[in-house]
């Protein structure tokens, strides 16, 4: 665990390194506090869709059947691990509402810790100019998460969004670290398998990431046959775990794909889905001014005066590739109706991770062009500040609008609409319970 490694390694570091490490963990703590404050400002509630998972979890815990109605084998959920987690909370006599909120909050903290691991891997001590600049980049990543409305909102609501985001971010970081040397890739394979068991799109993203790891690891072994078993081990483990779940689904429910695929995608005109999905993705990029910052992606390809760009480029290729692959899947599936761009919330950390190496790359390049290498840190801070101010201001404006009115936004529910709808259904449910 990162915190245990922090305690164990502190005694082996020089005083300045210990101070730097403590400051970085302090930034993570402050980022977590800011994120929870942001979520509290938006709302803490349980959306109506979460009760579907609650019902499945309740029957799984009490009857051993993952069914909505006892005896009816219908898979009306697409978040297997989240249902299992909620069923465990029921077995432990813990309210599923509280367990959902606590689990989501802990997963959000896990994402912040993964961002710290990503920054530390990308700019290790021996290869970076100043520790202060690395802290600036870390603070940028943490603030981009904590200050972003869709990410903060989906810490609440009771769905699996944060669990999927945490597993996805951890899997990406683990995949990048595994690519540094000869490895079997079992850890990233396990994380990607849990992604696939949490959300169906995890299968798509995990297959792509592990295939890239397979190729890069085999390449590092000079494509020798005896070096093939190392990267193949991770792929086989991923295939075995995900394949076992598919066989279980087929056995229990009689179908290979979740019911949500058949109800929301199958049989609908692909052109209709594409049109709505493209509008959904475009609204996300336009609302939060993300198009402005796509030129930052070029920063990883600029010549640098100092640290080599290999890790930054590898990180960009993986994170940007997965983000674009997920975006293409969102477009193909027609987007989503829930508030605050739910489908993009779990991959927001990946988008931030694509920009951070670019910000550093542009700052390095500009400092060299201006013949002032010492300006790299101030230029990094300036670029980061422009990015943060732009997205947080746009996020704040959109969140306030979503809180103030029940009118739909870009074919999505507003926060007020979702909260009031769920509250009304809870009142009806309590009244029916008393009547029955």
Structure summary:
This protein is mainly alpha-helical.
Helix content: over 70%
Overall body shape: globular
Q: What is the total number of structural domains?
A: 1
What is the helix tally? 17
- Gap between N and C termini, in Å? 49 Å
Percentage of residues in strands: under 5%
Largest sheet composition: none
pLDDT under 50 segments (min length 5)?
A: none
Give a count of the beta strands, DSSP E runs of length 2 or more.
0
SSE order in H/E notation? HHHHHHHHHHHHHHHHH
Q: Mean of the pLDDT scores?
A: 90
C-alpha-based Rg, rounded: 22 Å
Helix- and strand-based class?
mainly alpha
Give a description of the structure:
The protein is mainly α and 436 residues long. The chain has one domain (23-425). It contains 17 helices and no strands. The chain has helices at 2-10, 15-42, 50-63, 80-91, 96-122, 131-146, 149-153, 161-178, 186-198, 201-220, 229-253, 259-264, 270-287, 310-333, 348-369, 376-404, 415-435. The longest helix is centred in the C-terminal third of the chain and has 29 residues, at 376-404. The N and C termini lie far apart (49 Å). The mean pLDDT is 90.
